[in-house]
């Protein structure tokens, strides 16, 4: 049985697009405060948790990018081998 989400977790806006938006605002030339970032994500003002959310999101993006790159190179290699076979 899946764990039941608490009411607080249901209200949090931790979608990838929302986290990307907050990261872009934090890395802007005139960044927003971490308190504002927490408010945008609808989480309690906790800078440690905010940083963990951002770090996990960036790690996931890097992992997904490397998977796509590997998959693309494998597909290209496979296509080139098929192309040589048909010639």
Helical run tally: 4
Query: What structural class do the secondary elements suggest?
Result: mainly alpha
Order of helices and strands: HHHH
Mean pLDDT over the full residue set: 83
In percent terms, what proportion of residues is strand?
under 5%
How do the strands and helices of this protein lay out in sequence?
Blueprint: H1 7-11, H2 16-26, H3 34-41, H4 47-86
Helix pairs in contact: 2-3
Structure summarized in a few sentences:
This protein is mainly alpha-helical and 87 residues long.
Describe this structure in words.
With 87 residues, the chain is mostly helical. The protein has one domain (14-86). The chain contains four helices and no strands. The protein has helices at 7-11, 16-26, 34-41, 47-86. The longest helix has 40 residues, at 47-86. The termini are far apart.
Key features of this structure:
87 residues, mainly alpha, 4 helices
């Amino acid at each position: 049985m899946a764990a039941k989400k608490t009411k607080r977790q249901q209200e949090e806006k931790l979608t990838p697009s929302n986290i990307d938006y907050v990261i872009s605002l934090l890395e802007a030339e005139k960044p927003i405060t971490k308190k504002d970032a927490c408010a945008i994500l609808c989480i309690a003002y906790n800078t440690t948790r905010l940083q963990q959310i951002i770090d996990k999101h960036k790690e996931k993006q890097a992992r997904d990018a490397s998977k796509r790159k590997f998959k693309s190179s494998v597909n290209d290699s496979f296509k080139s081998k098929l192309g040589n076979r048909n010639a």
